[in-house]
């Protein structure tokens, strides 16, 4: 059956000759092995085997309830805060199994930051939102905090909009500005990985574009895993995409290939809007 191509704005790429050349190129930052997860009796993740490359954008797509959010919340062990959760298997982060008993969840969450669907600034000033994490990590000197706050806000593409109002309450910002502030807050603790759970789904199109541009600029320095319902967004900004269905990974590969020449008929049906 002919694949319905170019539904999504996939950048032009040179056709590569062999499958080997198409392997994901960057070093892996996460590797999951036989990862299974249950909420009580309900199994939400089934034998997930994924290698997530560093300094690139990995999109997680799939229909509602397929386990996307659960999966990314395993990567910083946030999911274990839910009492009924039981996890089996391994998740290697830079070579260490983060599911082993002696791995510190606190240290992990410093390295692996998270941005949520709804912007969630603290009820504090713009400055104090960004300085919050560094202060918790013991940084007290105003000059150093000032530097961190400015750099984080610049890197989050929001400095020019807020530099004159750093003492104002963050709730006075627009939704899109609040989301970029939350990203700045995440950058201030110098993570290696940023997990994003539908970070633009509550935003208008202009704010969405700004956040997408920001995400793309961040991949030079950070490894990003983004859950999105928006397939155009996955096609526009990600380097590789995993398609989840009923708690399983159906297909994982380079984004342009997954969206133009999917190997599995279920991926093709999903990206062509036949279900989900
Ligand atoms: N706290 C919880 N307690 C019990 N079951 C849960 C809990 N959170 C999620 N689930 C179940 O686990 C499965 C996967 O849910 P998850 O939220 O990871 O899916 P999702 O793909 O992110 O969905 P959506 O796109 O709608 O956000 C679903 O069956 C869901 O009902």
TrEMBL record:
GO terms for molecular function: ATP binding. CDD domains: ABC_PstB_phosphate_transporter. Residues 24-271 form the ABC transporter domain. PROSITE patterns: ABC_TRANSPORTER_1 (PS00211), ABC_TRANSPORTER_2 (PS50893). InterPro entries: AAA+_ATPase, ABC_transporter-like_ATP-bd, ABC_transporter-like_CS, PstB-like. Keywords: ATP-binding, Nucleotide-binding, Transport. PANTHER family: ABC TRANSPORTER I FAMILY MEMBER 17. This is Phosphate ABC transporter ATP-binding protein PstB. The lineage of its organism: Bacteria, Bacillati, Bacillota, Bacilli, Bacillales. The gene is pstB.
